[in-house]
Write a structure and sequence with these properties.
about 20% strand; binds flavin-adenine dinucleotide; alpha/beta; 7-stranded mixed β-sheet; FAD/NAD(P)-binding domain; single chain
Length: about 475
């Protein structure tokens, strides 16, 4: 395709031109990283706002900016926190050291970490006092947590192909423990049923969030609408409402993009940071045949998430958040100071996609009235958003279908992939998306130095929280055997 009618992004003379397609967290991270080290970056986002799946929309009825769904981060999301620092919004995240759980009648149980105690000892007192479970059930969990510690990071990799249900059965975790402990944590973290998810990803959640470092479990909630987190543009040439309709290839290399308006842009390299459904459409068959990254994308399974905005006539909930032992809503968040506006979430919401919204609202109102029977609050209004393709499912064996950010030899060398679905070793989360953006940017700097005389490659990835000494010590089988008295 001829490259006439093109507009070039501006930037330092002699710098290499990079186009990032997609302004979700992966694209924002890639653009911010490359912009910080001298590339001429253009970020193209089809919508009128940045943030992709982690963003907000205008609700004319309430005159509010509503998030498409509540988004939660944890202390172990080191790269997402790094991006928030780059975007100058790290102070917009409120961290909660107490994680609240409610039974179906609103009885509260908390998990918290003792400040100053290293992991995993920090959660010990709270675990022992977690009266939602009997003492033998708590011991059951502690035994499983020690087994997870013993596996270490390398051990969990080997369990990628195994369903977590099998691991739980092998470690004698009872149904009630699964319902009251594993389900509230994992279904939301993985957007998949606890028993169906890959053991690797389920164990990773516990290792990274609870067992390795005392700060890993802390719950972060944005104190503003998600969209406000992206007010600071990741690069000067950020274009909203710029939908890419086609990629241009020359001699097996990515040469540029065509926008829906017909405008053409050329580039030295392109990062595709859209979801995997969009990626598939753009790569011609002959190039797909030589680049294995595109071979298995259709095997990734999309899973829906339901988010319910609920307005009540009276204050209902004073807690900032709560994980619920019983459904239908799995988590609740307070969205105003009074507690009249709540947001409920159902992950792995396959059964909810076709339910009439009024019926959903009725069920949620009943659940909340049972949870907070003291408040006698009535539901005034609801807005239910179901994202049908919220995330890919981390089923056993899925790693084989996740593409690398960088092309294999013989592939499209200057075309990089970013997005939560790419190979990050994280489930589909904001942290996973940011990691993918940084990894794609790093790969690009390895291949294409930013400007003459610039130092390449660059490193953008932030280290995981350090594994603290008790966790390191317990990682050896002998020490764990000594602790549990075998
Ligand atoms: C309902 C819901 C709840 C979630 N809750 C959580 C949570 O609590 N915690 C958590 O960590 N994660 C959560 N996630 C997951 C998280 O939102 C995603 O993993 C992350 O936002 C994915 O970012 P991304 O950049 O990879 O993809 P996306 O956000 O999908 O970004 C892709 C971007 O590409 C753009 N695009 C597509 N086609 C084109 C085109 N042709 N031209 C230009 N631009 C294009 C899209 O508009 C979009 O902005 C949730 C997701 C959903 C849907």
């Amino acid at each position: 395709m001829p490259l006439n009618n093109q507009t070039q992004p501006t930037g330092p003379a002699g710098a290499k031109v990079v186009i990032v397609v997609g302004g979700g967290l992966a694209g924002i991270a890639a653009a911010a990283a490359l912009d910080s080290c001298g590339y001429r970056v253009t970020l193209l986002e089809a919508r009128r706002e940045l943030g992709g799946r982690a963003s907000s929309f205008d609700d004319p009825e309430s005159d509010q900016l509503l998030d498409n769904c509540q988004h939660v981060l944890l202390g172990c999301c080191t790269n997402l926190q790094d991006l928030y620092t780059r975007l100058n919004v790290a102070n917009r995240i409120e961290y909660h050291r107490r994680v609240h759980f409610l039974d179906s009648h609103g009885k509260q149980f908390d998990l918290w970490g003792v400040v100053g105690l290293p992991a995993p000892l920090h959660l010990g007192p709270a675990m022992l006092a977690f009266s939602a479970l009997t003492m033998p059930e708590r011991k059951e969990i502690i035994t499983a947590m020690l087994a997870m510690l013993r596996l270490g990071k390398r051990g969990r990799e080997k369990l990628e192909g195994q369903a977590f249900g099998q691991w739980l059965a092998e470690h004698r975790q009872s149904d009630r423990v699964i319902q009251r402990f594993y389900d509230p944590v994992l279904i939301s973290a993985l957007n998949e049923d606890t028993r169906k998810a890959s053991s690797k990803y389920a164990i990773e959640v516990f290792q990274d969030a609870m067992l390795m470092n005392q700060h890993g479990y802390v719950v972060g909630l944005p104190a503003c609408a998600l969209e406000e987190l992206y007010a600071h543009r990741p690069c000067d040439d950020t274009r909203l409402g710029a939908r890419v309709s086609e990629l241009i290839f020359n001699d097996g290399r990515a040469a540029g993009v065509v926008l829906q308006t017909g405008e053409k842009l050329t580039a030295d390299a392109i990062i595709l940071a859209t979801n995997y459904h969009a990626v598939q459409r753009w790569i011609p068959e002959n190039l797909r045949a030589t680049d294995v990254r595109f071979a298995h994308l259709e095997k990734l399974e999309s899973v829906p998430i339901l988010g319910a905005h609920l307005w009540f006539d009276k204050p209902v909930m004073r807690l900032s958040h709560a994980a619920l032992f019983e459904g239908p809503l799995q988590w609740l968040f307070r969205k105003d100071t009074e507690g009249k506006i709540l947001h409920g979430v159902i992950s792995a919401a396959r059964d909810w996609v076709d339910k009439p919204r009024d019926l959903c609202a009725k069920l949620f109102e009943q659940q909340i009235q049972q949870l907070f029977s003291h408040s006698s609050a009535r539901l005034l209004r609801q807005k239910i958003v179901i994202e049908k393709r919220a995330t890919f499912s981390p089923l056993p064996g899925t790693d084989a279908f996740r593409p690398a950010q960088e092309s294999p030899s013989g592939g499209i060398a200057n075309l990089f992939l970013a997005g939560d679905y790419t190979k990050t070793h994280w489930p589909a989360t904001m942290e996973g998306a940011v990691r993918s953006g940084y990894l794609a940017a790093e790969a690009l700097t390895r291949q294409i130095p930013g400007a003459e005389n610039s130092v390449s490659p660059k490193s953008f990835m932030v280290a995981d929280l350090p594994v603290q000494w008790p966790a390191r010590w317990l990682e050896t089988r002998e020490n764990i055997d000594a602790v549990v008295g075998r």
